[in-house]
Amino acid sequence: MQKKLLMLGGSLYQTYAIKEAKRLGYYVITCDYLPENPGHKLSDEYYNVSTTDKEAVLELARKLNVDGVVAYASDPAAPTAAYVCEELGLPTSPYKSVRILSNKDLFREFLLKNGFNCPKAMGFVCYEDALAKIDEFKLPVMVKPVDSSGSKGNK
């Protein structure tokens, strides 16, 4: 019986992994909230489920009885993949570790707690909170999202 892989995302960057999984004989299912992504045309099935909604992805993975979950070229989806695999008893890195490595604030906290050098940083949930602390910054500063990569969201 053909093994099923749930690939979290179908962007251009993920098409390589989708093609390779199919070449290796897997039944490939993709999901994200962008139905026009090119990878969905390559997959065997597509579901409109956000790759960062770990409970919705878990529900989908259970329903489809998948053999694996992959977050290729998608840092924001990596914690979801680890969480779902952990919940389903599939091979994975620990969710707690992946979550720390995927979130800059949590990773800095981990580094400081474990005696590593780390640049000074502050994390904020909203713009107003950052403005309230503006006097504590030494300008210029770099503003980065805690949960993205590849310079996405940098200011």
Automatic annotation (TrEMBL):
SUPFAM superfamilies: Glutathione synthetase ATP-binding domain-like, PreATP-grasp domain. It comes from the Bacteria. PROSITE patterns: ATP_GRASP. The keyword Nucleotide-binding applies. One of its GO terms (cellular component) is cytosol. Keywords: ATP-binding, Nucleotide-binding. One of its GO terms (molecular function) is ATP binding. Residues 108-153 form the ATP-grasp domain. This is ATP-grasp domain-containing protein.
